[in-house]
Amino acid sequence: MGVFRGPHLLPFCVVKLTHLVSGFMSDKQAGQGANDRLHISPHFLRRREITNEVARYVLMAAAAVSVFVTIGIVYILLSESLVFFETVSVWEFVSTTSWTPLFAEPTFGIWPLLSGTLVVSGIALAVAVPAGLVLAVYLSEFAPANVRETIKPILELLEGVPTVVYGFFALLLVTPLLQIIFPQLPGFNMLAPGLVIGIMILPYITSLSEDAMRAVPNGMREGAYALGYSKYHTAVRVVVPAAISGITAACILAMSRAVGETMVVAIAAGQMPNFTFNPMEGAATITTFIVQVTLGDARHGSIAYQSIFAAGLVLFLLTLLFNLIGFFLRRRFRQAY
C-alpha cells in the first residue's frame, strides 16, 4: 500500500489556494460594487425624516381635534345648562312628568321626552339586534363567497339613504300597513318609526358583527368540528361567544345611533311630548324637541331656548352611559387571538 509524500501534494495545494484567493477577491470586489450601487443619499434620508415628522404631527393634530371638539361640546352643554338650572330646579326637571316649555305657564319635566326616546330606541333595537346577528352568522359561517360579496354591499347601501327618506317611508308606507293590523293606530305613533329605525341601524350590527366573527381563528372552528360539533353548533357555541366583544361594540354603536335619530321620529312620531311607554301612541323624543325649538319656536336667550341645552345634556349623558356599558362589557369579554 503506497503512502503519499509531501512533494506529490504540493501542486494540488497551490492550485486550491489560488482558487480560494481569487474567489475571495472576486467576492470582495462584488461586495464593494453592491455597496456602491446601494449607496443612499443623505438628502434622501433627510427628506424621509422630515416626511415622518410631518406625518407624525399631522396625525397628532387630527387626534387632538377630536378631543377638543368633544371638550367644546361638553363645555357648551354644561355652561348653557347651568343657566337653565338657575331658573328651573333640578328636582323639577327630573321628577315632573309634564314638558311644556313653550306654553304660557311652562313646565320642565324631562320624562315625556325621555320616555319617547327610550321606547323608539327599544323598538329599533328589538328589530335590529336579532335580525342583525342572524344575518351576521349566516354571512360569516354559511353563505358562499359570492352571496356574501353581494349581500354585504347591499346592506351597507342602507347607511347612505337620507333619514328624511326613512321618515316619509315610516309615515306613508309603514304606518298604513300597521293600521291594517291595528285599526286603532293613530297616524303619528312610536311603533312605525321604531321599526324603520331598526331597519336603518341593521347594517351597523350586521357588518361589524360579521367582521368580528370572521376574525375568530379557524383553528377554533376546526377544533369544534373535531369534537363532533355541527356547523350550526360551532357557529352558536364557539364563534359567537368568541366574537362577543365585537358584537357588543356593534350593538352599542347601533344603540347610540338609534337614540340620536331625529328626522324619522320628527316626521312619523309627532312632536307632542307625551309621557307614555305605549308604542301605539304618538310622542316626541329629545332630538325632536331640539329640532322644534331651533326652528324658531322660542326666542334666543329665553328659558324655553335654554331648555334645549338641558335636554341635549340628558341625551349626551344617556349616550355616554351606553358607551361606558359597552366599554366595560368589551373589557370583560375581550379575547385576543
Q: Count the beta strands.
A: 0
How far apart lie the N and C ends?
Answer: 69 Å
Helix count, DSSP H or I runs of 4 or more residues: 14
How much of the polypeptide forms β-strand, as a percent range?
under 5%
Q: H/E element string?
A: HHHHHHHHHHHHHH
The domain count comes to 2
The class by helix and strand makeup works out as mainly alpha
CATH class of the largest domain: Mainly Alpha
Verbal overview:
It is a single chain. This protein is mainly alpha-helical and 337 residues long. Helix content is 76%, strand content 0%. It has helices at 6-37, 42-85, 90-95, 111-142, 145-157, 163-181, 191-200, 202-214, 218-226, 231-242, 244-259, 263-268, 286-297, 303-333. The N and C termini lie far apart (69 Å). Mean pLDDT is 83; it is low at 1-18.
Summarize the SSE layout with pairings.
Layout: H1 6-37, H2 42-85, H3 90-95, H4 111-142, H5 145-157, H6 163-181, H7 191-200, H8 202-214, H9 218-226, H10 231-242, H11 244-259, H12 263-268, H13 286-297, H14 303-333
